[in-house]
Amino acid sequence: MSDTWRKGFSAPRRRLGSLLRTSPKKLFVLTIAIFFTLCLLAGGSFRARRYYVEKAKQDERIPYHWEKYPRLSGFYHGVRTLVNYTDWVPEQQITEKTKPLIHEVPPMDPVVVNPYPDFSSSEYLQDHHPVQRCYVDENEKFPAPDIFAYPGIPAGMPAPFWGSYESIGVAPDRCWERFGRFGPYGYSYNPAEGGLGLSNNSAHAGAEKVQDMFTKVDYRKVDWSKAQKKCFEKNQKRFDPEAARGDGATEGKKVVKRSAYVLRTWTGYQYTDIQLLSLRAMINELSLKSGGEYDVHLLVHVKDNSIPIWASEEVYNQTIRENVPEEFWGITTLWSEQQMRTYYPGPFPEEENFENHSKSDIHGVYRSAHFALQWFAQQHQEYDFFWNWEMDLRYTGHYYEFHNGISEWAKEQPRKLLWERSSRFWIPGIHGSWSKFSQLVERETMESNEKPVWGPVTFPTSGRGMLPSPKENTPPTKFEEDNFQWGVGEDADLIVFDPLFDPAKTNWVFRRDVSGYNTSLEIPPRRVAIITVARLSRGLLNTMHEETFRMHHTMFPEMWPPTVALHHGYKAVYAPHPVYFDRQWPLDVMDKTFNYPPTPQDSPFGWGEHNMQGGSFYYNAGFSGALWRRWLGANENGEGGKKMEESRSDRMCLRGTLYHPIKSESVE
Ligand SMILES: *[C@@H]1O[C@H](CO)[C@@H](O)[C@H](O)[C@H]1NC(C)=O
Ligand SMILES: *[C@@H]1O[C@H](CO)[C@@H](O)[C@H](O)[C@H]1NC(C)=O
Ligand SMILES: *[C@@H]1O[C@H](CO)[C@@H](O)[C@H](O)[C@H]1NC(C)=O
Ligand SMILES: *[C@@H]1O[C@H](CO)[C@@H](O)[C@H](O)[C@H]1NC(C)=O
Ligand SMILES: *[C@@H]1O[C@H](CO)[C@@H](O)[C@H](O)[C@H]1NC(C)=O
Prior knowledge:
This protein has helices spanning 14-20, 24-43, 46-57, 122-127, 178-182, 207-211, 224-234, 236-239, 241-245, 273-288, 313-323, 337-343, 365-379, 399-412, 418-422, 428-431, 434-447, 538-549, 560-568, 587-595, 623-632, 642-647; strands spanning 82-83, 111-113, 147-149, 153-154, 259-266, 294-301, 332-335, 385-390, 394-395, 494-496, 514-515, 534-537, 554-555, 572-574, 635-636, 639-640, 658-659. By secondary structure, the chain is α/β, with parallel strands linked by helices. The chain has a seven-stranded mixed β-sheet, sandwiched between helices. Strands 1-4 form a two-stranded antiparallel ribbon. β5 (259-266), α10 (273-288) and β6 form a beta-alpha-beta unit. α13 (365-379) crosses α18 (538-549) and α18 packs across α19. The longest helix is centred in the first third of the chain and has 20 residues, at 24-43. The two termini are 27 Å apart. The model is unreliable at 1-56 (pLDDT under 50). One 2-acetamido-2-deoxy-beta-D-glucopyranose (NAG) is lined by residues 82-84, 87, 107-108. The site of one 2-acetamido-2-deoxy-beta-D-glucopyranose has 3 residues, from loops.
């Protein structure tokens, strides 16, 4: 789902005043900007709107405070500058800038990355069923391929500003470049061999070493649905509670939980070659290599409401064939807003809606993207977890390492003060370790007069009232009596990738888009995480479903899952994945800006959102796309590309990073 429409609040407030006291030329520019805005709004092209408005304003605007900080350049150091992790000094800590030592060829060799448990070890087999190997093709000629990283980091690479690798279980000591990351999925070999042939224009020092490490898979006839299905069937015992209870021989084995990895796409979506590589990587790394722990699904929004996808299998299949690359046909599920109107008839009356800020249909994907996921989860109660994944996300590292690492990290978090920790940005450079950060949050929460969240949150209701909350979400003790024990070892019900903030403390524009409650009473307490990327448990999704169909409750998509979790006492976390910025922010300024905005308007989730533009992960981040494209080898604003890479230190090598949004990508 696109979220660029939230635009319009990112300008410094001074700008408005200066435009009012303005010259005819400026007025002309402003008129043009408004004209484009209206045209594009009418055309529904929110993305384009954003682009033109920014263009028109370019010369007019007052620079943001962060634009004066020096740019970091170590991101672009290539594989010929690799150093051992223990020798690496982050760019932020280098006091005297010197050129890194550039070798003739990469000074180390790529290695296979295997982040899975050692499936064949006796420790694993002691309490798990054996894992059967999975293949890409039906004839089992091509085993699910490995991918490769360099066991080092380019000299002078910046450190992430938020989050950390170590805490989320991602190896911090290696980096990824295009041949090792995507070569095995067809990036670097020819269409005649079943690859995509995208590497002809790439700098490639040392790449032949990677090329020699894998067998080229012919992807031309791959059917991922068959591959995933077969993999699951071979490994079914691992996930079957009956088999775990056992018959003597298999007794006492752990039941492995399963996830659906749900990609939110739509009819008319253009699958670039790079997107194909990313999708193959997800299926291979999450599903096939893990012995079926995940199933990747494409959940496709059919935008034309007049197509009766529910009435005819032929129409359904035809719609898939016209909108999805053949290799993914079998993992595709279609839905439409028309179908959601029937599934969740409501009613959702206007008088029960606090504010319809976007002035759009309640059944539209814009206001209720979660309806489709809730429906999907009802059809697939076999999964324990559902990852809601957007199409404009990219990740440079190993998918399983990232997702499994985050899930395990979340599982270990105690529930006490979890909402409070999750509402902040952890900046290790100033806060220290996670446990120091946790102590800080504890101290500041106790010093404030706010009551920490502890179990389901109650609030005045009338009319239909509230659904009861699941018994297991009732705290076993009083808050004061818990020694950070409750919740440890319990899988999280909601994992998000930006802080879980209270919108009442911000001027986030959709904070009052709350439906189905008595609007004469106070608005219910809420939480929000920007970007609808999350892992949701089956239990949480079932409650969301029931809240919607039975109670006619719903809220803006980024607010709904966190708020249902808050109301019903589910375990919710913001996972501190590493986030980079393009400039060297002073850390105290960064902490103040993001964690202590002086007014609600200054919140990074309100008018202060411009502070995110230089980041690698936010809905309006601009650096994310630039860095991703440079990593692929593209020329970006006159920088990068084959010639420049070859004349410097060759292609970039980044540690695993989650990027959002990626609005375009190319290898040229
Ligand atoms: C990394 O460390 C190993 C072992 O100490 C050493 O042999 C190697 O030369 C180092 N590599 C680089 C690029 O510094
Ligand atoms: C890349 O180069 C190879 C070998 O020269 C050639 O066969 C192939 O057609 C090229 N691929 C593309 C996409 O241009
Ligand atoms: C639609 O596609 C499915 C899956 O490929 C297939 O099993 C089914 O027979 C198809 N139905 C029609 C009417 O084409
Ligand atoms: C929201 O506003 C739109 C446009 O005015 C209107 O069509 C729609 O019915 C409203 N929906 C709700 C639930 O208020
Ligand atoms: C909403 O709350 C007001 C104020 O308590 C009350 O008078 C009214 O009856 C309630 N409406 C419904 C539909 O319950």
